[in-house]
Amino acid sequence: MIRSFFFLVLLLIFAIAVRAQQLQSPNDQLIMSFVLQADGTPTYQLNYKGQAVIKPSKLGLHLKNDAKSLLDGFSITNTQTTSHDSSWEPVWGEEKIIRNHYNELAVTLTQNGTNRQLIIRFRLFDEGLGFRYEFPAQPNLVYFVIKEERTQFAMAGNHTAFWIAGDYDTQEYDYTTSKLTEIRGLMKSAIQPNASQTPFSDTGVQTALMMKTDAGLYINIHEAALINYSCMHLNLDDKNLVFESWLTPDALGDKGYMQAPTQSPWRTIMVSDDARTILASRITYNLNEPSKIEDTSWIKPTKYVGVWWEMITGKSSWAYTNEVPSVQLGKTDFTKVKPNGIHGANNANVKKFIDFAAQHGFDGVLVEGWNIGWEDWFGNSKDYVFDFVTPYPDFNVTELRDYAKAKGVKLIMHHETSGSTRNYERHLDKAFQFMKANNYDAVKTGYVGSILPKGFYHYDQWTNNHYQHVVEKAAEYKIMVNAHEAVRPTGIARTWPNMIGNESARGTEFQAFGGSKPNHVTILPFTRLIGGPMDYTPGVFEMDISKINPNNNSHVNSTLVNQLALYVTMYSPLQMAADLPENYNRFLDAFQFIKDVALDWDVSKYLEAEPGQYLTIARKAKGKSSWFVGNVNGETPRTSTIAFDFLDATKTYIATIYADAKDAHYKINPQAYTIRKVVVTNKSKLTQLSAAGGGYAISIVEATKEKIKGLKKL
Ligand code: NOJ
Ligand code: CA
Predict the structure, then answer these.
(1) What is the 505 CA–ligand 2 centroid distance (Å)?
(2) Could you read off the pLDDT of 361-376 as tens digits, one per residue?
(3) Neighbour tally for 100: CB within 10 Å
(4) Active-site residues: which are they?
(5) 368 in contact with ligand 1, CB cutoff 6 A
(6) Which ligand is closest to the CA of 482, given by its number?
(7) Ligand nearest to the CA of 171
């Protein structure tokens, strides 16, 4: 009797062990199956409308100094399914209300022999899957070191991918579009010569990775809530078309120092047969925790200009002098050094920018190169270059503070850390106190060069913790952060909405370092922007950089109108108008769009989208009746057709359409544009040509009867 009872129990355990656990998305279009292989290796697969998106793929982690890694020998000891449907309001964003709707499966695995427990939690949304590893508190797994995470993503075909090289220190590459099997052959040419590092393998790429299958499915792999963990790259086994996670190592080659209870970030796979669904998905934010900042009233979307493009183009300099006076901060006597005569952050120039910002209604003025250290840093990798509180002699902090205040403009702080994370941490409190005392409430940080201490990388766990520490410390001081060269965002801005911007991709600066591909901006929303807003710094009106600096022959590969559209297509609560005031003064009619465009939105409509080719987005300004539309176009001229059915049917509007002229072209005729005003309603339709590297931008405002007199209907 007892024996047969045990037999039954055994049979039951066996049945649980081999049975596939299935999870369906709320709309039933996605199915995820979890299967434990005969040797106890966890696997999962994902289907969309009956098509394989992820073929059976292994899950697990390889631990350091551990005879038994978390790879196999598991039995399922518990499963739990739940459903969730709620909504939340972001502090800023592409829409006012975000729905978080998913079905969840949590599988508890117990490892035979070690008795260790691992939970794999899957959340299946209508547009994709998120899953993560959880390590509950337990006696046999307390402190452990990850040698490698072994999460696989087995592709069902030789998809087209939009990829950049897997690199531990830069994300500022142009994208390459190729078949998966072509990655290896193209890797060398995909690494730009000015990149500081080399990728870890011939088939390693970064996330967010955007792909398109031959059958027309769009697949996007990324991660969410990258906290206290190393950033994930993907390494392709190009014979079998299987990606495997490849974490960023630290100076010892280790990939994660863990202490249970803890968890990995979420791994995300978005999928749809409509590219617009990828742009509209909020999976990445939904997989992050709600805001930890209670009073968010001080977090404000910001439009700014800056003493910046003139340094980027090489017209002026960050450093005050070309002499290297001293590495002893605070002891440098700058009255004795020879100024180089081209220092950008001088009082008169900063005042010029403050005046321009005040005149045109901008919120802020970024000033880089205001503090001593640049002369010591350039070309040297030194630890103690900047103290973040000592201005150059021609930058009068209090005078400029009062000048800006009187004009209703905020100065934006700049902290170039020179990659020295420890030096920055040592000075952080004083630097933030200095900011507060001088009326700054936003900082742009930067991490150019190799990370110091030596041997660490921009995206390893230790350095990621540094970026996170800065954001949390800034929140204590009510400071907004825009980090350049930091790890690519993973939706953490939901939890820390003072992180109003990041660079973490190839920004506009590269247009002055030789140029970027004209279709770059049609890819970024599908890749880099999946994790959060980018400080892309658009708004360049003079494409011939030699007109700013005769020694710089770069050409900005974009039409002027394409630059306008970016304020809509590249969503960010922080937007710069990057060009010089004198260039805006030449095109004030087009500049009007940059002045008018909103930074925060109630609704976003993704009207047309094809990665690498074009996209058209319409957004409704937060709390207002006005709308803005942006279209950006790749290499091939194209006619876009959109309906204005998103408008309120009871209202009449005036649309100001900024379009490429018929003969516009990003290379040979970028400044040719037309501006027309027409009356539109929700019945209107627009057919509009976008030039190569071009686009169009529209501002739509509610109109009174008097105002529409004399205007034509669209
Ligand atoms: C690189 C950043 O992307 C750029 O915006 C900044 O001006 C320089 N570093 C100097 O910090
Ligand atoms: Ca950069």
Answers:
(1) 7
(2) 999 999 999 999 998 8
(3) 17
(4) 509
(5) yes
(6) 1
(7) 2
